[in-house]
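Budget justification aside, the reviewers requested a transparent look at the raw inputs and outputs of the sequence design task funded under Objective 1. We therefore reproduce one unedited record. The lines immediately below are the structure tokens for a 215-residue chain.
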């Protein structure tokens, strides 16, 4: 399918190639994205920062760590990494998803500019691999550095709090969620709160949250 789409429409158009790769990534077809990237190169299309950002996402999603390391080397050789926070975030995300958290942290620490997205990639990686205490530490550092958490970080920290029984952090997150008016906007947030309170041994609060998100 990828061969037909890419060969039929790519030509020498970098923007179109990037759009196709990104389409496959967004639809969860990481292997197809890698095939499309290979076809782009065979058509003589030189990848740019956007291409590598998309293809690193694909590698992270399918756990293709060796390919991800190869693309990391290519990014460095082309000098793309120095000022591109989005590309840096994609590298952090790829290594974190593949379980190489120390490498993800090294790249994160070396980034001149950071964003909420780069913090999200790091923190969710630690939670995904059940290193909850470290995830909570980085959550504190993120806030200390002046970054506001997004929904993805709230979900990750609620999972971490519930997993280690950290009720204080869980309640603090709950307060931030209520203050931001997020509880009624996201079923995922509500369900994560219910799960956190249940795991922390406070069924009454789990019931209260469940009742409110059902109203």
């Amino acid at each position: 399918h990828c061969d037909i789409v890419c060969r039929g429409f790519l030509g020498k158009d970098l923007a179109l190639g990037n759009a196709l790769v990104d389409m496959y990534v967004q639809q969860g077809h990481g292997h197809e994205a890698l095939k499309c990237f290979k076809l782009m190169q065979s058509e003589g299309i030189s990848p740019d920062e956007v291409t590598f950002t998309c293809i690193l996402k694909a590698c992270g999603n399918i756990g293709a760590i060796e390919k991800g390391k190869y693309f990391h080397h290519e990014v460095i050789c082309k000098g793309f990494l120095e000022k591109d926070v989005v590309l840096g975030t994609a590298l952090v995300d790829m290594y974190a998803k593949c379980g190489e958290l120390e490498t993800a942290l090294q790249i994160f620490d070396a980034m001149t500019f950071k964003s909420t997205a780069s913090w999200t990639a790091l923190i969710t990686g630690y939670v995904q691999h059940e290193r909850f205490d470290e995830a909570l530490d980085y959550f504190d550092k993120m806030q200390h550095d002046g970054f506001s958490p997004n929904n993805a970080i709230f979900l990750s920290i609620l999972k971490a709090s519930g997993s280690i029984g950290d009720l204080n952090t869980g309640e603090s997150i709950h307060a931030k969620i209520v203050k931001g008016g997020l509880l009624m906007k996201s079923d995922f947030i509500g369900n994560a709160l219910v799960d956190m309170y249940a795991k922390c041994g406070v069924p009454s609060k789990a019931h209260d949250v469940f009742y409110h998100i059902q109203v």
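The chain is about 75% helix and 0% strand. The CA atoms of residues 167 and 200 lie 6 Å apart. Computational costs for records of this kind are itemized in the attached budget.
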